[in-house]
Every structure is written in structure tokens, then in C-alpha cells.
Amino acid sequence: MTGSTRNKTAFLVLAVLAGLLLAACERKTINQILAEPDRYARREVGIVGTVTDSYSVLGRGAYRVDDGTGKLWVVSDKGVPRKGARVGVKGKIKNGFDLGGLIKIPEAFRSGLVMIESSHRAK
After folding, report:
1. What is the DSSP-derived secondary structure letter of residue 112?
2. pLDDT score of 120 more than 50
3. 46 φ, ψ to 5°?
4. CATH number for the domain including 37?
5. Can you give the residue range of the structural domain that contains 66?
6. Per the CB 3.0–4.6 Å rule, which of 12, 37, 63, 112 could disulfide with 54?
7. Is pLDDT of 11 > 80?
8. 45 has which bridge partners?
9. What is the number of structural domains in the chain?
10. Average pLDDT over residues 3-10
């Protein structure tokens, strides 16, 4: 097999794998998710945006992603990206919750939606 043929075969294999990965996870805007949260709660979706807030303790935490159409908090147990990072995130959408007077939590977590991250990657 020549170098050119090998490169074309490798490219084809990578293109097929990338297509399969993208098909498994729909990329949506945050505005689309906020408009129809129940539609996206039962399946994995992806978003791409910039981290505007980031909080972490012992490898767990939360960060807020802004994609230009809206902002969404992402909860992670795999570490969080730094503020200002451009990220792609996959996860499931869940309703936010209120811990009442037990813990002072940001307003964004008291109601609304959060994404429970399955993975993230810096762009």
C-alpha cells in the first residue's frame, strides 16, 4: 500500500468514526434546549460555547456555558474547565433544584435547568 493510499484510507476511517460520534449526540443551541427541555432530557445532547463561570472542589463542580443564544449550568464529576475556555460538552438535561436554607447556592441553580455532563473537551 502506498503512502497516498494509506492516508486516504486513514482519512476515510476517521471520517466514518466522526460521523458515528456526531450522530450519537445531537448538537443544539442553549436557546433550543431552554425552549424545549423535556425534549432533550431523555437523550444526550451537545453544546459548544465559552465558560463564563467555573467552580470546582476536589475534581467535582459546575461551570456555566454561554453559546451566544443563552447560558446553561453544567454539573461535572470529571473536573471543570477554566473560565474563558471554549468547550464542547455532552450530557443530559435535568431540572434544577432548590436546597432551601441548607446551603447558599447561586440563583441559577435554584430553578431552571442544568446539564449533567457525560464529557467535555476544550476547543
Report:
1. S
2. yes
3. -120, 145
4. 2.40.50.140
5. 26-122
6. 63
7. no
8. 26, 91
9. 1
10. 64
Contact 47, 67 (CB under 8 A): yes
Lookup: cell for 116: 449533567
**Cβ pair 74, 58 in contact under 8 A:** no
Whether 3 shows a pLDDT value over 70: the answer reads: no
Place of cell 433544584: 97
What are the grid coordinates assigned to 48, written together? 459548544
Express each pLDDT in 66-85 by its tens digit: 999 999 999 999 889 999 99
d(CA 109, CA 87): 21
The amino acid at residue 122 is: A
Q: Look at phi and psi of residue 112 and say left if phi exceeds 0, alpha if psi is from -120 to 50, else beta.
A: left
d(CA 22, CA 112) in angstroms, rounded, equals 27
In eight-state DSSP terms, residue 34 is H
- 17 in a structural domain: no
The helix/strand/coil state of 114 is strand
